[in-house]
Model the fold of this input.
Amino acid sequence: MKIFNLAFYLNFLNLKVINWTYLSHAYFSFKNTTTTLGVIH
Done:
């Protein structure tokens, strides 16, 4: 049971890391897009 819990926790942690990476990537591309738009306008 303990091993299963550990695997579940690691999987959960992995998902959080992936989510955070995706969110920060989306945020930075959004920031770059707005910066580019600001330069164009």
The chain has a mean pLDDT of 86. The chain has one helix and no strands. Residues 2-40 form the longest helix (39 residues). The helical segments are 2-40.
